[in-house]
Specification:
By secondary structure, the protein is α+β, with helices and mostly antiparallel strands. Helix content is 35%, strand content 13%. It is elongated. The N and C termini lie far apart (71 Å).
Length: 150
């Protein structure tokens, strides 16, 4: 007597695989969006820490120091915060971050866009998280780098 799977058993296995796929595939599709959001939040946190580091150095020094990537203290305002975060719209954070050119951040005027808030970013986000339409704003008077709503 041959041992084999019956047609009912095979259909049952196919149905189980289909149900598992229906649950798992949508979760995997959000992984890219979540990675972009996490990368942008991590970079924004690093930017804020760097800004506070520059300000702290300004407070304790006698204004004779370099900050960021060898920037002179003359580029700081009267409160000890940078008046600019970078040289161009394609490398807007190169004064503060070592690898700013590969971080894929852009600048449009006074707002900054990261991987999740860029035009190819993600539209799946919650309050307080970056996504298409949201941007970051740098206030050079207070040194605040924060996410703003459209």
């Amino acid at each position: 007597m041959k041992k084999a799977f019956t047609l009912v058993e095979l259909i049952f296995v196919i149905v189980i695989i289909g149900v598992l796929s229906a649950v798992a595939i949508p979760q995997f599709s959000k992984l890219t969006d979540n990675a972009k959001i996490s990368a942008e939040l991590s970079t924004a946190s690093s930017i804020q820490a760097a800004l506070e580091g520059v300000h702290g150095e300004w407070v304790i020094s006698s204004c004779d120091f370099t900050w960021g990537n060898n920037r002179p203290y003359s580029e700081l305002n009267s409160d000890g915060y940078p008046t600019s975060l970078g040289e161009s719209n394609t490398k807007p954070l190169n004064y503060l971050l070592k690898n700013a050119e590969i971080a894929k951040w852009t600048r449009a005027g006074t707002t900054y866009l990261g991987p999740a808030s860029s035009s190819k970013g993600t539209s799946h986000c919650k309050d307080g998280k970056p996504c298409i339409g949201k941007s970051w704003s740098y206030n050079e008077n207070t040194g605040e780098f924060k996410l703003i709503e459209p």
